[in-house]
């Protein structure tokens, strides 16, 4: 995972409070500011901060209502929230904690306390996201794993059909991989699989594109809003790049070097095709590529 600076959104109607907190946090974090409850919600939805420091008492909407709305929205439901308040009553603190706040910081601010608590909660966020990332990653190839692919594939298919977008999916299989493992050994097979995976990952040019390990020596490529011609171009570039690695494969019937076969399919615009049917079409295209001699791309237009 990248070590980008974490984002903290400060929501307080008092300009001095915003300035004090911002000056404390800016050296270590990306700081965003809001001065109303509505602004806090809008900026939380737009920027998805790692932490929201939220004033309890604001004129348009109190912090409790802001927190309720954030928790009701799946996109913002897991943002860590620290209430900042001048109220010291236990019942007020209990109310916020029951709504899902992680902590309270009282005014006037103590710089040491503020920095320590912010650092503690952001470390929790970082660790949680690392665990989530690892749960979605294949340990050998460091690509997305099958479970993660299945989640994204279903979501992207729904989005494509809802908005009448196109979408392409491709299955990649390393040619004669069992023979490669038998001849060169499984450690060499693992290195070859990682090399092919790097090629596939490097071919993903947009944040929405994803390469995943689907099982064994089989990878899957998902390219939302990509038509058949574009999908075929990406698949062919992957096939060529793998061959150009020049990894010897004396036992292959396709080539003296390691190669891949790829089958793909594109969701037809304006037609109804289930997610399962589209994936099956890509799988069938892969079968035809292998039947035709391997080291080639077959695409269902």
UniProtKB/TrEMBL annotation:
Organism: Massilia eburnea
Record-listed 4-aspartylphosphate modification sites: 55
Enzyme type, top EC level: transferase
Residue ranges of every copy of the GGDEF domain listed in the record: 165-301
Catalytic activity: 2 GTP = 3',3'-c-di-GMP + 2 diphosphate
Protein name from the UniProt record: diguanylate cyclase
InterPro entries assigned: CheY-like_superfamily, Diguanylate_Cyclase, GGDEF_dom, Nucleotide_cyclase, Rev_trsase/Diguanyl_cyclase, Sig_transdc_resp-reg_receiver
UniProt entry keywords in alphabetical sequence: Phosphoprotein
GO molecular function: diguanylate cyclase activity
GO biological process, one term: phosphorelay signal transduction system
């Amino acid at each position: 995972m990248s070590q980008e600076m974490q984002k903290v959104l400060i929501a307080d109607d008092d300009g001095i409070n915003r300035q004090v907190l911002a000056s404390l946090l800016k050296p270590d974090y990306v700081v965003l500011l809001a001065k109303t409850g509505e602004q806090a919600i809008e900026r939380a939805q737009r920027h998805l901060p790692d932490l929201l420091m939220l004033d309890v008492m604001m004129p348009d909407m109190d912090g409790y209502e802001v927190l309720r709305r954030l928790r009701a929205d799946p996109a913002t439901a897991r943002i860590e929230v620290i209430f900042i308040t001048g109220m010291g009553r236990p019942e007020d603190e209990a109310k916020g904690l029951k709504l899902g706040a992680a902590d309270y910081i009282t005014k006037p601010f103590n710089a040491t306390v503020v920095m320590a608590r912010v650092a503690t909660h952001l470390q929790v966020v970082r660790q949680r996201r690392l665990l989530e990332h690892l749960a979605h990653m294949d340990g050998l190839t460091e690509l997305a794993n099958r479970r993660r692919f299945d989640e994204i594939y279903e979501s992207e298919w729904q989005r494509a059909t809802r908005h009448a977008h196109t979408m392409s999916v491709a299955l990649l299989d390393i040619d004669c991989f069992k023979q490669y493992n038998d001849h060169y050994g499984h450690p060499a097979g693992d290195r070859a699989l990682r090399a092919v995976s790097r090629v596939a990952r490097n071919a993903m040019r947009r944040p929405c594109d994803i390469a995943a390990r689907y099982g064994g020596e089989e990878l899957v490529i998902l390219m939302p809003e990509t038509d058949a011609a574009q999908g075929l171009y990406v698949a062919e570039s992957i096939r060529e790049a793998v061959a150009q690695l020049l990894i010897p494969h004396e036992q292959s019937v396709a080539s003296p070097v390691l190669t891949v076969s790829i089958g793909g399919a594109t969701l037809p615009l304006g037609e109804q095709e289930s997610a399962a049917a589209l994936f099956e079409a890509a799988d069938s295209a892969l079968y035809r590529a292998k039947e035709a001699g391997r080291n080639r791309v077959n695409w269902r237009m």
